[in-house]
## 1
Amino acid sequence: MMLAFLLVTFACLSRALQQGTLHRRTYFYVGQTYIADGNSSIAADQMYVEHLTPAKITRPLPLLFIHGQGMTGTNWLNTPDGRPGWADYFLSKGYELYIMDQVARARSPWQPTVDGPLLATDTVLVESIFTAVQRFKLWPQAILHTQWPGNGSVGDPVFDEFFASTVPSLSSQAEEGEKMKHAGSLLLDKIGPVILLTHSQAGQFGWILADSRPKQVKAIVALEPTGPPFMNVIIPPLVPARAYGLTDIPITYNPPITSASDIARVVVNQIPGVTCFQQAKPARKLVNLLDIPVLAVTSEASYHAQYDNCTVGYLRQAGVSVKHVYLGEIGIHGNAHMFFMEKNNLQIADEVVEPWISKIHG
Ligand SMILES: *[C@@H]1O[C@H](CO)[C@@H](O)[C@H](O)[C@H]1NC(C)=O
Ligand SMILES: *[C@@H]1O[C@H](CO)[C@@H](O)[C@H](O)[C@H]1NC(C)=O
Ligand SMILES: *[C@@H]1O[C@H](CO)[C@@H](O)[C@H](O)[C@H]1NC(C)=O
């Protein structure tokens, strides 16, 4: 009965959104630096930001979306199979949106004489960890994946469309972190306060920006944020990463640290391919994040199902208040890492994310 009601509700929601949500779109850049080039100059470090304003704004705080590695702001627009994305959904709920392309990526230009080397995105990586994880089975939950539209592999029109939207990313996470901190802080000064929605790699930019501008960030929705602390897992090479716990660049702790090695760590859990570190007690606090509520969302079949609780455990130990939702545990099955564009993307927005952010007030 309830399920039938929900299905009807989603059918209506999808139909209404098919036509799109009436809105105005503008774009601007923030963070540009002029760099001398002979007797002239070039520009670097600027961030492209799209501003989508619904016909009627009914929510007090805008949403700022930050996409992950290899991706751009197109992630939040329509899905690769042409359905409405989260941008349309949240516009329909009366939110004003800002959607960026990460610095040195896509419409935020990469300057060959200024920016560091790029890492290409390849088909096997995308198939094996995002779109066709059930075929590669790199982690136990992968077999549960059913929500990607199409077979998630080269030759399928939806995969081909999605893959065409991927782009090279800076290979240094620390370099991207510094550039995102620079332009992102200026962006928050201009548009804040906001609610941040981060995905994957951008998880760390959410912590970095909230640390840099704590008054301008009222809440963070972290969709499968990059993690776990200190060490890469599952996808080789399993090497040290995120030297400051959840970030590759310094973030503020209390008691203060003078270098990353001041953060004492212990292994609390080990499963094949995943080493989970937390801080040794007493844990230092991520002091600028203490008043910023976080919603972490983890899908059932993603590689993040293996370790997001370790990332969340680290945040909680550092004093951050986190609500962690495992989609599988609330009856939303079969999703992997790109769940906000999979078949049930609007259900996840409507049942999990919007109800939480609608309670956040300026
Ligand atoms: C700037 O430098 C270029 C290349 O050296 C030269 O051709 C050009 O005349 C210079 N322009 C001015 C305005 O000095
Ligand atoms: C996926 O679908 C495409 C298009 O039908 C097909 O060419 C391709 O072989 C399929 N790949 C797999 C792994 O099933
Ligand atoms: C995370 O979940 C795994 C599997 O359920 C469990 O073994 C581990 O102790 C948890 N880790 C943390 C830090 O909560």
Note: Residues 173-191 form the longest helix (19 residues).
## 2
Amino acid sequence: MEIEDIKNVGVVGAGTMGHGIALNFALAGYPVILCDINDDILNNALKNVQKALWLFVEEKLIEKAEAEKAAGNISVTVDLEELSRKSDFITEAIVERSEDKRQLFNRLDSNCPPETILASNTSWLILSDFASDVKRQDKIVITHYFAPPHIVPGVEVCGGPGTSPETYDLACRLMEKTGKIPIRLRKERTGHVINRLQDAMRHEANILWAEGVASAEDIELGIVTTCGFRMPFEGSMKHFDIAGMWRWPKDVLENYAEKEANESWGLSAELVSKTRSRYAEGRPWFMDPDQYENEVEKRDRDLIRRLKALYRNKKE
Ligand SMILES: NC(=O)c1ccc[n+]([C@@H]2O[C@H](COP(=O)([O-])OP(=O)(O)OC[C@H]3O[C@@H](n4cnc5c(N)ncnc54)[C@H](O)[C@@H]3O)[C@@H](O)[C@H]2O)c1
């Protein structure tokens, strides 16, 4: 299947994620069938779609006419067979229960034309957990959106043991075509990449709170006004580079590496030296050293704009 062959999209599950995923496809011009188990849920999903579109128009992201067109691209049904017959690419966003996803994937596999691609929005499961009975192993993939899925740009894309490179590539291109940025996972891992990273921080925050190091409110404030404030510009790979750590004296770096390798962080000395060996040579490991000054300036400009917005919001 080529990207042009995807003409109709199906979304199963119209809750928090499903209605936003459907909206994202609809905004990109795809006719979308949204399916759930009863009409009340579907009506509520349509209301949420309208609310989201109204906000986009209010914030001048799109024109009113575009919003009307996007809303017109979404139809709803409780009939999974109808969705199966009519969709070239289906993503499920139903309850995060392995057995439910297994049953749904098997039903879609039996009902859909052979070329239809089946995707899952699972947060923590992997295809090997629930899709092993599916016959079209080459045409299944995870596209993991982040709430709110019609706004957050990154989507993790992950295959299973049988996913073909064509399906994987097509899923990535479909994400790009619908305004998303694919984050390419090379192998299955429970929680994928980003939820594992988020959970590592949450885990530590909970420990610090439970130990009484700071109040829940101050931990939250600390995240949002420090590392979280910088995060639109730097993630954990870039952070130490842009902080200029590669210019630190060797003994200080060694001290740091020792701390990182300590038992509580569970890192092997080998792993630490792998990421730190460039620092020992006086070079950043992630960034281009020739771009360092430019990147620092870009970051500072970006942060100043965010700071202005913060103060503007405080005054309002
Ligand atoms: N909420 C988030 O922030 C978030 C973020 C990323 C991924 N996810 C994942 O997305 C999926 C959905 O999460 P959610 O938060 O939107 O859940 P939700 O409870 O808001 O919505 C799930 C919807 O699926 C419907 N449903 C359940 N079984 C169904 C079936 N067999 N056929 C049709 N519809 C069915 C339910 O009626 C419900 O409306 C989960 O796998 C979750 O892990 C959630």
Note: The chain is about 50% helix and 10% strand.
